[in-house]
Amino acid sequence: MMPRKFGMLPDGRPVMQATISGHGLTASIITLGASLQDLRLSGVGHSLVLGFPRLEPYLDEGRYFGAVVGRHANRIAHGRAVIDGQDLQLDRNQDGRHLLHGGHDGCGTRNWMLADWDESSVALADYLPAGHMGFPGAMLIRATWSILPGPTLMLTILATSDEATFCNFAQHSYFNLDGAETVSDHRLAIPAETYLPVDGDMIPLGDPAPVQGTHLDFRAPVALGERLGGPRIDHNLCVSSRRRIMPRKVAMLRAGGLMMSLRSTEPGLQVYPGEHLAPGAPGLNGRPYGRHAGIALESQLWPDAPNHADYPSALLGPGELYRQSTVMSFCRSPKG
To answer: All domains of the chain, ordered by start, with CATH?
Structure first.
């Protein structure tokens, strides 16, 4: 299917939608944020991700839904960092205090270019000039969504810069496998022994802490309904101490007779069960999304990495190639 116009931005630029399919899986990608707008599995009557049938909600309440966020995903404290002795003041788009997801004009809010597509794959590209959101280096980014046997949806992100800069991308879909109003009946497992404690602004306090005995212990499958009414969940789980060349398993999510296995090259997984979501525009299932309607599982580097020398590094040297793979595989599960 040829890409089609999904809507128009306020400045008149079109947002395009490309739909790819194969092996019983169908995914629709829009150029705004290179976002996964819809994901369907054959024989299942609802989308597996939260999304909207129209463009307008993506400009407001649906910001970051399904998007590829960066050039630095998650938070950088006070929007401040240092490269080669140079103090950087980055955009502070979180309450005027901290950088979030690359700033107010980060990749998750930008209209990417359609670079290439076929029946089972679509590639999108973005260009960030030097100084964009305070970051040094002109950066080229290419995000490719592909459907593979499994059925599997894979996202591959490549990036390069002509100067030393920070680089950390994440995929920001909210998953809901059973189509219910909340994800309380989902079971989540994450093989992480530690997590990053945070302050009231969700900025890491320092060293990782053990998950044992906390509400962030998902080493054995946990029903989310047991955790959603307790302490806030919006934390990085440390699944590794470094980035990997090949994706490794970072999470398993199961509900409604379906199971999703999530694999990634990234050492961190930000877990956020949509606490801020409030009913607004109708979603793909025809009803508005409320609190805990979906869960974001964001594979990325650890947040605020530029300000912690002992965290996996977000530094990308001039001419170096950043490569990230995030892999979502689906199957029927009799234990859903």
So the answer is: 4-332 (2.70.98.10)
